[in-house]
Amino acid sequence: MIVAEKKPLAEIKASLGSARRILLIGCNTCVAECAAGGPKETALMASALRIAYDKAGEKIEVREASLDRQCVHEFLAEVGEEVNWTEAVLSLACGAGVQALARFYPQSVIIPALNTQFIGTTVEAGVWAEDCSGCGNCKLAYFAAVCPLTRCAKKLLNGPCGGSNNGKCEVSPDLDCAWQMIYDRLTALNQLDRLKEFVPPNDWSTSHSGRPRVIIREDRRV
Amino acid sequence: MNLESRLARVLAAGHFAVTAECGPPQGADSQPIQEKGKLIKDVVDAVNVTDNQTAVVRLSSLASAVLLKEMGIEPVLQIVTRDRNRIALQSDLLGASALGVRNVLCLTGDHQSFGNQKAAQGVYDLDSIQLVYAARIMRDEGRLLDGTRLKSSPKLFIGAAANPFADPLGLRVTRLAKKIYAGANFIQTQCIYDTARFEVWLNGARQEGLTEKVYILGGVTPLKSVRMAEYMKANVAGIEVPDEAIKRIKGVPNKDQGAEGIKMAVETIEWLKGLDGVAGVHVMAIGWEEKVPEILEAAGLSPRAKLEKASQ
Question: Do B108 and A198 touch (CB under 8 A)?
Fold first, then answer.
């Protein structure tokens, strides 16, 4: 899923500026799963905004909506009436959802309420971790299903570096060393010899480094 | 291989090589690096110039290397992959060669979160082993990573680092083998305090025949005080200071701790000289360059070997 976190309320308020009719739009998919922008968080943020403006002695009108997926065109039309009413839309989706709204409603002010963080997993209740960089050329089959480009702080493909200590990364004792994980998994799979091979420089042209990527599939076009 | 590198010739002649290290200053003056150079000029075969070590912005390593070279000191240019992509790295290897720098040490570098530019983008387009590989094919095959033919090849004696003290131990010899495969001619190790662990690693390397394929220079950093020893143990990534070493330096009065640290460094060098598969020593006297001549003299490594001029 795409994992995100709520922005500080003060930053959101500053971005809203002079808008007094505000529509909050949550998203029921990834950001609901990571408890940042689902219907529940949308309701909480609406209350928090009402209270904050009230305290400041300012009058605002807040409406709420939640879409199944803000990143999918078909769902966006559902909120057309409210969007027309509003002076600013506050999107609780990931960065893709925010931009999808903006594409769909070119005349409207669209403001992000979240900081989109990464493609990750729920490791345990309340803990999310980054696992994938979307590099466009998945190497997990080679590295025992642990991504060194994402999970090693130095993106090492021939790792580990000299800072691997007791299974932890030199960057933080809270961070597992990806190369220790790769080593442990390959040991368990009896494939340790794989680490003797020199891995040549990565081809970043398939990643965002090349350009913003677009996929066009003729079989899916209407 | 005629590389016009003194370090390469010293090692090829079978002499026990001595390198030291100079960290460039956090400023635009040439004087600090020249002063450090002066302190060690005549007692070492070559001097490493660190590349924005610990991710702190300093005078560029290539500029510093050239400043040392102008004083008649042979530099070992350290290049990290943290700050430059392969376009800049390959360009710098060409530039270094054009400026007469004949030794490079290819590193990944300390993570940017340790330095003074914590908001920096870490590049890591290549890792250290891939940089070694790039340098080797540029030199030996006259081409760049993408295959482009060079009009002329850089003349470089190629080095890499090894840390026998990092985990997992099982991969440390594998990493060394990969660095040699990629093209490393010499290795400078992390500073050694845990001699037992170093020997485990060296034995592993010897068993794989790696010590026959590469020159290994053992790293030595004299401890100035018990405070420094404890700081390094607790805070410096990849450095292991055993409790016995700390106990030993703690056992002498504060004012004598520096002298004890130097004595320990000298003992480490003496021990390195006797190890089969170790070709030299790399002394990293961080901020204590003035002690390097004394350490080397006490270790019986002065003066340096006189060599015939390389045939052109």
Answer: no
Q: How many domains does chain B have?
A: 1
Is residue B312 in some structural domain? no
Residue B156 and residue B154: Cα distance in Å, rounded?
Answer: 6
Cβ-Cβ pairs closer than 8 A, A with B, add up to 94
Residue B198 lies in a domain: yes
Residue B306 lies inside a defined structural domain of this protein: no
**Which residues from chain A sit within 8 angstroms of residue B171, using beta carbons?**
160, 179, 183, 195
CA distance B210 to chain A (A): 14
Domain CATH for B271: 3.20.20.220
Record: fold of A2-118: Rossmann fold (3.40.50)
User: Which among B113, B168, B182 is the nearest to A198, CB-wise?
Assistant: B182
List strand residue ranges (DSSP E) for A82-158, in order: 88-91, 110-112, 114-124, 127-132
Q: Does A202 touch chain B (CB under 8 A)?
A: yes
Residues of B in contact with A161 (CB under 8 A): 108, 128, 163, 166, 238
Model confidence pLDDT, tens digit, residues A64-110: 999 999 999 999 999 999 999 999 999 999 999 999 999 999 999 99
Interface contact A173, partner B, CB < 8 A: no
The residue type of B174 is: T
Instruction: Please compute Rg for chain B using Cα positions.
Output: 19
Give yes or no for a contact between B83 and B123, defined as CB atoms under 8 angstroms apart: yes
Write out pLDDT tens, residues B228-266: 999 999 888 788 899 999 999 999 999 999 999 999 999
Task: Let me know: does B295 contact B26? Beta carbons within 8 Å.
Answer: no
| pLDDT at position B283 over 50 | yes
Answer whether A201 sits within 8 Å of B161, measured CB to CB.
no
Residue B310 has pLDDT above 60, yes or no: no
For residue A61, what are the CA distances in angstroms to A54, A90, A113, B59, B145? 11, 13, 17, 56, 60
H/E stretch holding B231 reads helix B226-235
pLDDT score, position B312: 34
Domain interval for residue B212: 6-298
Residue A159 confidence class, pLDDT cut points 50, 70, 90: confident
Residue B15 has pLDDT above 80, yes or no: yes
Chain B interface, best mutation among A135, A152, A164, A209, by max B CB count within 10 A: A164
Mean pLDDT of A147-176: 95
> For B140-149, how does the pLDDT look when each residue is reduced to its tens digit (9 = 90+)?
999 999 999 9
Smallest Cβ distance to B111: which of A153, A167, A204? A153
Pairwise CB contact (< 8 Å): A200 & B166 = no
Contacts of B110 in chain A (CB under 8 A): 163, 170
> In this predicted model, what pLDDT tens digit does every residue of B191-233 receive, in sequence order?
999 999 999 999 999 999 999 999 999 999 999 999 999 999 9
Report residue A124: phi and psi, to 5°: -155, 175
Spell out the domain ranges in chain A.
Answer: 2-118, 133-206
